[in-house]
Amino acid sequence: MSVPYRLDSCVWEITLACCFSCKYCGSKGGRARDNELTTAECLDVARQLADLGCRRVSLIGGEVFLRRDWETIVRALTSRGVRVAIVTNGFLFTPDIVERLRSAPIESVALSIDGPRDVHDAYRQAGSFDRALRALDTLAAGGILVSVITTLHSENAPRLEELYAVLREKPVCAWQIQACSPMGNAARGITHRFDVNAVLDFVDRHLEDSPFPIGVADNIGYFTEREGWLRGNPNGRAVFTGCRAGLSAIGIDSVGNVRGCESMYDDRFNEGNLRSRSLADIWNDPDAFAYNRRFTPELLTGACRSCPHGPFCAGGCRSYNYFTHGKLYEAAACGRNGGFREELP
């Protein structure tokens, strides 16, 4: 029995191995898990994704390039018509990787850059900011589309203008700004509060002069006056249509656990494991992803319950809500409803 949901995109953590152990890493990256999927298992996952009609896969880590068979996995997807993007910290990037990315072929690469040099290096590693910028230049020179992802917390959010001054001089194709979710390493030692509306105002202020689109991720914003542009759409027509976890998107971790979103990094959200069930079986399970597939506006709480956009927004990002205040159907960082909810630390 099938369910009326089409899988469109997947975020796949192919390894937890990383050269960093960042203070805000939601998956506690650093060392590879002992039982990560083998190459043969990954190739079978790639086949299953394609067979299920998945159109786009984002490979993440850890650090993707620390897995020796990353190119084999990419080719297993692209040879089946699946578009592939890679998210990297750019620290271990080497020029020969560019040709491998081009021949695979990769759709784009996203670099994690989280502030001006002093902030970025403090939360990652000394020299990592400059290495990320060199990787950006090398990728762009090799004809690879490069975007930047910035994860916001209390220290770097007020310094977006400084980072923007650097990025606008670089060959960036897009910039995504997202809130740091208090999970994994970020559950301790990070102050998550920042001025949500100041960030939205920053994006709004540069919509006209930026050489690349600037957009906010699914865990911030929601239906302010510039909603369409804030979603990174140049024509301003984009709107947030609610969390897509389990509706059109899934996440897969390096040992084969399947979740609606790879940011839902908690066993509560595991729907099955690919070593014991097929992806189609998990996706088509009528009881899976119930937090979204069975959503009704009556589940909304707080300001979201009375918001006219509540039935469409569905309370924002399910993962971010869960890890910040535990209320799945109440947006934790909503610009329309005044920023962070009071329960946030």
Model description:
This protein is an alpha/beta fold. The chain is built from 13 helices and twelve strands. A hairpin with a 4-residue loop joins β8 (249-252) and β9. The protein is globular, with a radius of gyration of 19 Å.
- Which radius of gyration do the C-alpha atoms yield? 19 Å
Terminus-to-terminus distance: 44 Å
What overall form do the CA principal axes indicate? Answer: globular
Query: What string gives the helices and strands in order?
Result: EHEHEHEHHEHEHEHEEEHHHHHEE
Question: pLDDT average, as an integer?
Answer: 90
Quaternary state of this entry equals single chain
* Individual helix count: 13
Give a short account of the largest sheet: 10 strands, mixed
Structural class, judged by helices and strands?
A: alpha/beta
Present the secondary structure layout:
Layout: E1 9-13, H1 39-51, E2 56-60, H2 70-78, E3 83-88, H3 95-103, E4 108-112, H4 117-123, H5 128-141, E5 146-152, H6 160-167, E6 174-179, H7 196-205, E7 214-216, H8 227-230, E8 249-252, E9 257-259, E10 272-273, H9 279-283, H10 290-293, H11 303-306, H12 310-313, H13 318-324, E11 333-334, E12 339-340
Parallel strand pairs: 1-2, 1-8, 2-3, 3-4, 4-5, 5-6, 6-7
Antiparallel strand pairs: 8-9, 9-10, 11-12
Helix pairs in contact: 1-2
